[in-house]
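Re: weekly structure request thread

Next one in the queue (368 aa):
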Amino acid sequence: MVRVLPMTPSLHLASVAAVRSVSNGRLRLPLPLPLPLPFSAPSLRRPSLISLRTISQQEGFLGRRGGRYARNFSSVEAGAAGNMAQASIALKQEEALEWVKKDNRRMLHVVYRVGDLDKTIKFYTECLGMKLLRKRDIPEERYTNAFLGYGPEDSHFVVELTYNYGVHQYDIGTGFGHFGIAVEDVAKTVDLIKAKGGKVTREPGSVKGGETVIAFVEDPDGYKFELLERGPTPEPLCQVMLRVGDLDRSIAFYEKAFGMELLCKKDNPENKYTVAMMGYGPEDKSTVLELTYNYGVKEYNKGNGYAQIAIGTDDVYKTAEAIKICGGQVTREPGPLPGINTKITACVDPDGWKTVFVDNIDFVKELE
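Done, posted below.
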């Protein structure tokens, strides 16, 4: 069991300030300030805090000049205390960011809603080559989940499809982009999808400004999949693309709060967009988050189809604290889920995209 240590008052105030600073859409972390000496004169000793009553007494004894002198002592002390709090906050930030870098993190699965579960499972298994890993029905909550992918959940990134009883259509919105799947032969895969009645929205061909052969297809609910021609890879389900309104802000957030690495950043001025690949490993061996910024577009409609990404962590409590320190918004405080006792915490990034962090040990137990 993880013991959560109480925060000191100064750190608590800093956390509140950090969370409030996100309300305007910009991530601002307080910076450490130098601690000035109260007075430059070497002969003066550092005074203790002076109460208003003491100041009043000094005014009567020393006159107005003495009162002003006493009040100067008090204001300098307050400034010094504030600077000490800032230094303490900076140390807390440094410790949190260092822990995030060392945490054992991996992208586990992506969750989204579909209108016909059986139809979607058939498309993913027959056209995209995925395997149905497990399926669970929760009748009391009126929904069913299906997990599909290219390998076991304890070592591969998978999709978690959610079917809510009686809901047959969702709005995908304009913010979600696509999922990426690495295949050895894009043209062959497209021919198979066509033969199965699938929808191809971009025929096979080289990507603009590059040599990689790609194609785009849609599943029965309209979610787009980019097929990328690559050699054999341990992680075929290789990308999740989301659109953001401020790319530099998003990169900073995912680096600091999530511990991801900026793998590459590509600007395409001809088509007026920039992409950044973020992840916990190289693109050809692990799943990455593809953040896309379209010039001049600051907000997107997220719809109600796409839900969230799940990431594994060794400690959901420390994860939530680090997210708060980095100015992120925690939407579910860390703790066990009712019924299954898997510890999780949830947050949203500066654009409102949701992520759930799952305790690594509890996740493995859940799979058993």
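The chain has eight helices and 16 strands. Residues 1-66 have pLDDT under 50 and may be disordered.
Next request, please.
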